[in-house]
């Protein structure tokens, strides 16, 4: 089969270590299924893998990709890309949690093997391209808002760092759910785009905003103090990343004195993915698709991601 995989690591030019060509077919194993991939979405995780973050040289070659939608025996499915963990479906409870392309070959291929439990029915309302965009950034945003953040209609949510995949998904999901979504961004263009997607307000980082019930934090050091000043007493901060590094001060005095809840999120559960798919099917909200490339041009697709030229998801179709 045709696949896109990591041939070598390069921190300076990650796409230079990509290879596209023939790879062995997935091997059958008990409690796993082989998905005929119809669409697979790119994530920054793919670029980190090409840089050697999360992979070791002895694991190469490793097929990239964490997100996919496809077909198994006539069933249209979306792949939940989190493998293992406490339940251990398909791998055993002692195997640590990982994402596809970390321990097992990923989704940038004509076919991918995953635990059968990881397959979720694709709603007929969503195309394969749309569904493939959901299992990482959109699933993370959904879990941050509704599972960890427990946001409800009428509440105010602050999203730090508009423009990224998780932030864009949070704006669209939050607005559709009746939340008052505020965003921050250094870019006037990204602030305008967030407003056009349904944000109720968009400000520069650090600007004073009305106290939020929930703050979504993926930036870290550059925004943490603003986050702690902006969440209401008794509110919730949900953390799913720290792209600018860890904060130099956790501001624990503010956390305990104002009884702020801090929750961590990595991706989301299979149940979260089921609920997210139902949310989109019912509301008509759809992920933004920046561009679609054939699998043979995966290098070009990853180059666009590496350059930061996209607004929305980049999708590869075998």
Description:
Helix content is 27%, strand content 27%. The radius of gyration is 19 Å and the shape is globular. Helix 6 (224-230) links the parallel strand 14 (212-217) and strand 15 (231-239). With 318 residues, it is an alpha/beta fold.
Task: Briefly say what this structure is.
By secondary structure, the chain is of the alpha/beta class. It contains nine helices and 18 strands. The mean pLDDT is 94.
Defining key terms:
27% strand; 318 residues; alpha/beta; 27% helix; six-stranded parallel β-sheet
What percent of the residues sit in helical stretches (DSSP H or I)?
25-40%
Q: Which runs of at least 5 residues are low in confidence (pLDDT < 50)?
A: none
Q: What general form does the structure show? A: globular
How many strands in all? Answer: 18
User: Termini distance?
Assistant: 10 Å
User: What is the C-alpha radius of gyration, as a whole number of Å?
Assistant: 19 Å
- Following the backbone from N to C, one meets helices and strands in this order, namely EEEHEEEEEEEHHEHEHEEHEHEHEHE
Q: Averaging pLDDT over every residue, what do you get?
A: 94
So how many helices?
9
Quote the beta fraction: 25-35%
Find the structural class using helix and strand composition: alpha/beta
User: Largest sheet at a glance?
Assistant: 7 strands, mixed
């Amino acid at each position: 089969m045709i696949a896109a995989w990591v041939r070598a690591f390069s921190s300076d030019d990650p796409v230079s270590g990509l290879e596209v060509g023939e790879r062995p077919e997935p091997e059958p194993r008990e409690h796993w299924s082989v998905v005929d991939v119809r669409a697979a979405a790119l994530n920054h995780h793919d670029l980190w893998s090409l840089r050697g973050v999360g992979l070791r040289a002895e694991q190469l070659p490793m097929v990239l990709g964490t997100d996919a939608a496809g077909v198994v025996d006539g069933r249209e499915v979306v792949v939940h890309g989190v493998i293992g963990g406490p339940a251990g479906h398909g791998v055993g409870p002692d195997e640590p949690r990982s994402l596809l392309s970390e321990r097992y070959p990923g989704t940038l291929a004509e076919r991918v093997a995953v635990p059968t439990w990881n397959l979720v029915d694709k709603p007929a309302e969503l195309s394969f391209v749309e569904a493939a965009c959901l299992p990482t950034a959109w699933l993370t945003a959904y879990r941050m808002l509704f599972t960890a953040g427990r946001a409800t209609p009428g509440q105010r949510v602050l999203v730090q760092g508009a423009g990224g995949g998780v932030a864009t998904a949070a704006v669209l999901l939050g607005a559709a759910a009746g939340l008052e979504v505020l965003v921050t961004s250094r870019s006037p263009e990204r602030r305008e785009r967030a407003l056009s997607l349904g944000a109720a307000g968009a400000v520069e980082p650090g600007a004073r905003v009305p106290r939020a019930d929930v703050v979504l934090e993926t930036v870290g050091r550059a925004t943490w103090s603003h986050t702690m000043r902006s969440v209401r007493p008794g509110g919730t901060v949900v953390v799913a990343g720290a792209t600018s590094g860890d904060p130099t001060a956790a501001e624990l005095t503010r956390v305990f004195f104002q009884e702020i809840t801090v929750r961590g999120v990595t991706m989301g559960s299979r149940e979260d993915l089921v609920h997210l798919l139902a949310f989109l099917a019912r509301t008509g909200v759809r992920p933004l698709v920046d561009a679609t490339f054939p699998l043979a041009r995966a290098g070009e697709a990853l180059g666009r991601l590496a350059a930061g030229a996209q607004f929305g998801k980049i999708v590869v179709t075998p």
